[in-house]
Each structure stands twice: as structure tokens, then as C-alpha cells.
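Margin note from the TA: students keep mixing up input and output lines. Inputs are the sequences; the output is the structure of the whole complex. Example:
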Amino acid sequence: MTKGTHAKKTVFSGIQPTGVVHIGNYLGALRNWADMLDDYDCIFCVVDLHAMTTPYDPAAMPESVRETLMVNMAAGLDPERCTLFVQSHVRAHAELTWILGTCASYGELLRMTQFKDKTSRYPENVNCGLFTYPILMAADILLYKAEVVPVGEDQTQHLEFAREVCRSFNGRFGETFPEPQPKFGPVTRVMGLENKAKMSKSLGNHIPLLAEPEEIWSLLRTAATDPARVRRTDPGTPEICNIHTIHLGFSSEEDILWCEEGCRSAGIGCVDCKKRLAGNMSASLAPVRERYKQYAAEPDYVHDVMLHGAKQCEQRAERTMHEVRKKTGCTTKSNRYLSPKGIQLFRSENSKQTREN
Ligand code: TRP
């Protein structure tokens, strides 16, 4: 398989620019991604084009994107060891989406559970972007010929779809893209504080990753635990308690054992267990908060990270698009295309153009 100049396998994943990142995102995804940085050629993308499929405030978008980038960097996506960029900064995502759309099955798209779910929940906002969302996601991945995609369980169907689109393109136009493989991390399904639904920002049942110790405690203090423990003297079952799940993400084995035994024997109360967790969580996230403050104080650096990522990815994307244009027959004879001004011709690969943002 062609890997260009990159000896390590390419990993790609997308991050929604929601601004607020919570401990569910951290334990379920971010932390696992950070562990991959040295072994893979990692590309992480803030997917603003995907975010356009749901109502949003355009004026607030740039700040949400920056914020998301900074929190993710602080959480372990070290910009020195991976490529970080913003989807809309690399135009080829939109171009490849169109091309792949001609290789995608309409019937398959209709079967996407996320599409069905979103359209039934928001019947007043069924836009076509919502429908073709998985094609854009396939384009994200294939543009960089990524071989590995770390995903959560909610994205497995989309990834399977991307694999089908990949096979379909390769079958129609010749072997071009490697089939991306999913990589599932250790499954940590963190429930919300009320323990009724998965932790999510939109449900407001989350602990922000950047929460200060006081906030962590005030959120944990009232969080749901094993309902069997009505009184302190009632024994509980740690395995069914969400607080226990979160302990597994932040506490030492010794502390986990202490909580498990104390819970089963009613030797400790839920408040004791939560206090221990709050301390551990505050301590283990202190470096994240610290790094975030540093990035927030250096807007030029964050800007540079974005610019550098866009440049890198644009070059890589352009290499793929050159091949795609040739294979699909949508090309001129030379490796040239019209500039946006429509008059000068320039070489796409060594373009010295300055970006507008
Ligand atoms: N759809 C993904 C999500 O909601 C985000 C995403 C966009 C993505 N493009 C991707 C994930 C490419 C993996 C690969 O979480």
C-alpha cells in the first residue's frame, strides 16, 4: 500500500467544535488518542463543516473552533507530535465529498442510525448536509489515505460506510485508497451525572474537562450513585455505579479497592467515595488545566498551530486529489488548475499562496 513519505500508519479522527469538552470525551476518546501519538502519524481535525448540519451561530463558530482546539491540545493532543487542523481550511474536503458521493449508496445513507435519529428528533431541520454527513466523513479519512480511525461505538456505522465508499471508488476507478480500519479503545462509557443517559454537553449532565476543583466537587456531590444505597448503612454494588466507572478513569488501584470494599460493606458512604474521586480527578486533570491556561495566553501560538496544520494537510490532500482527478478523468493534462481568479495558472503542490485566515 502506498504510504507516501510516511513510514508510520496514518491515523485520522474528527472532533466536533462544541467548545466544551467533558470527562466523558476525555476518558472515552481523547486519552486513548493521546496514547497513539508516538506510534502513528496522527491527524486530528476540528470538523466545522460537519457542525454546519445543525443550527449554529456563525459569529460564534471561529471561537468555538479555537476553543475546541485548545482544550484538545491541553488534553494531550500535543501539537508537536501530531497534526491538528480545521476542516474548512482545506478545501479539498468539500471537493472529495462530491466525488465520493457518486460512489456512495443512497439506500445505505438512508439506513444511518444517526441520520434517522436526528431527523426524527428535529423534523424541522432535515437538511441535505445531515444526509450526506457520512460522505464528508469518508472524504476526511480518505483524503489522507488514513488506515486507522479511532472511533467510539456511535461512529462505527459511519466508518463502515466510509469503508464501503472506499471499496466502491477503488472498484470503479482503480486501487487508490487503503480501507480504513476502526480502532476501538478500551470501552469507557461514562454516564451523565444523573446516570440516565450518556454524558453529553447538550444534556448538561457533564463535568467539564477544565472544571476547577470546587466545580468538580459541586458537580460530583449531587451526582447519582447506586440507587440501592439510600442510607449510609445500605451496602451497594460498585459495578453498577457511574461514580465507580469514573473512579476507574482517575483513581489508583488502591483507591479503587478501598471504594469497592467500602461500598459493598457499607463501610464508607457515597460522599466518602465521591470525595476521594473529586481529589483524584482534580489532581490528574491539573496539568490539563495548566496547559490550557498557557495556550489561552498564547493566541499567536494557537494560530500558528492551525496555520501549520492547514498547510501540511493541504499539501497532503492536494497530492491525493491530483491522483483522484487523474483517475476520475476530471483533470487537465498538466498538474495545473485555474486559480480562484480564473486567469493565472499555478502549480498546486508548491503554491506560495498566502491564506486568508
Ligand atoms: N462524526 C464524528 C463525530 O461526530 C466526527 C468526525 C468527522 C470524524 N469526520 C471524522 C471521526 C473522520 C472520525 C473520522 O464524532
